[in-house]
Description:
This protein has a single domain, classed as Beta Barrel (Lipocalin). It is about 15% helix and about 50% strand.
Amino acid sequence: MLVKSIARAFALVALILTPLAARAQETPAVPRVPPCDGPDDETMMALVGQWRYALDTPGGGSGGYYVFRVDGDTLRGEVRRELDGAGRPMESLRVDGDTVTFEYASGGNYGRLAVALTRTGRAFTGTLVVGETSLPLTVARLDD
Length: 144
């Protein structure tokens, strides 16, 4: 089981570090976020902007950006990998107090990746889960 988890983690590193073919940069609509009341919701509005994430993997670190925006009364998000800038829309995006969760397609053999973040001041800590492997994340606002 441990060998399988380590193999998956190394494969994830390969996925993150391998550039993918250019994909359309348009972000499809993300379903309305039930816990938020709309664009006036202070917690949701505090997310709007660009955030840099750092991912710790067994093979070293990797990173990229989370971009949140409000479109009407809907919070939308995109994950952009630092290596190739490939954008992936956030799906099942939820905000519940200081907790943000979402999923996105890996663009490879890993299917969907799940992210859970908890706010700690003006930053977040959390995990990225792929299969049975959970990797630690740190996230900070770009303008800080």
